[in-house]
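As a next step, the fold was encoded as tokens, giving this record:
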Amino acid sequence: MKIVVLGGGESGCGAAYLAKKKGMEVFLSDKGAIKDNYRQFLNENGIEFEEGSHDEERILNADWIVKSPGIPKKAEMIQKINEKGIRLSSEIEFASEFTDAKIIAITGSNGKTTTTSLIYYILKNDGLNVGLGGNIGYSFAKQVADENHEYYVLEVSSFQLDDIQNFRPYISLLLNLSQDHLDQYNYNYEEYALAKFRITENQENDNFFIYNKDDEMSKNILEKLEIKAKMIPFSTKEKLEEGGFINGDTIEVKLKDTFSMKLDELSLLGTHNVANSLAASIAGKILEINNESIRNSLMTFQAVEHRLELVTEIEGVKYINDSKATNVNATYYALESMKTPTVWIVGGLDKGNDYTEIEELVKRKVKAIVCLGIDNEKIINFFKDKKEFIYDTSSMEKAVEISKSLAEKGDTVLLSPCCASFDLFKNYEDRGHQFKEQVLKANGN
């Protein structure tokens, strides 16, 4: 079988490696430059590849093509592949064909990385043989090739779900929906939502689908779809007969038996993280992990880097890195969880943001806005009549310096940008690392 892999990053190299290991004829093609570490990996494993161009004839002669999620479905090469009717899959689809492990797959607009990491931590903490992959960590395909895990916990994006045919998780989770990546879905929110719901389309009645009962768009879609998997809801707003919910000052999960723990024992901050903890607890209960083990994991889990990550406290001021908040909805959750007056660092590459969603929270919680971007005009214009103190910066050093001068004992400095990072930084990780570096520098470290 001739396999062509498009994209020479983590998922592409992993897929090519798995194909090679399974005795297939494999060729990897990347229109851009392949990073040195991946180029070395391909050479070491005898995988034929090209970079800087696509050999169209060779690609269109493949039996099966595995595509990086970063390649837009509107790309010319993808159109040609679809016209020829060649099977086109994501790495998660490809790798899942070669493992009998139970897959726990998590999607949603916000909270995917945190919840995926938390579920992995719960399973690992309980001694299960588990791998972590998808949109996070190491390539799922490479793990399938080299490691014999009994479980995989996968963070899955809509772009990966666009290219599945048979992908069937044992447990699927859809955490929430908000308008994101609409440029890839014809600016149609429902089209994007339906892409997320593909996580459950191949599930059968011996599988489980965990969903958010509070999410409006999920409710609308569920009225139109027939889900075969056993559906288990979670809610932070109402008590449920079955599923996960808040009961006074505790979280509860009711399945065959009941799991409960105090809200203030959870290691993660904010209402949205209560929802993430409920979803993760349900997955733990389905896998028959005992209550004490789940409780211990929820108490000791450390927040994901760049997601409401406490960097340090300087002179009574907390510095929180939420660089992963690249859309307005993610920043909504961050602001909602703030309990003290907040100096808010915001800005970057705008993705058509509508700031009305966070307007009231900003009025209530934010004492000063520090804009960080090449072009901050849209943010400044939106908030100028609503906040007295707004500052315009175009470097992380300046943003942190101004924030430190504004914050007083008992305040919080929050980097939660609402925007993509590519105007000033390589990616959101680079932005988060630079924030941490400047904060620690300001503290003399």
Summary: The chain has a mean pLDDT of 93. The CA atoms of residues 13 and 293 lie 36 Å apart. DSSP finds 17 helices and 20 strands in the chain. Residues 93-300 form a domain with the UDP-N-acetylmuramoyl-L-alanine:D-glutamate ligase fold (CATH 3.40.1190.10).
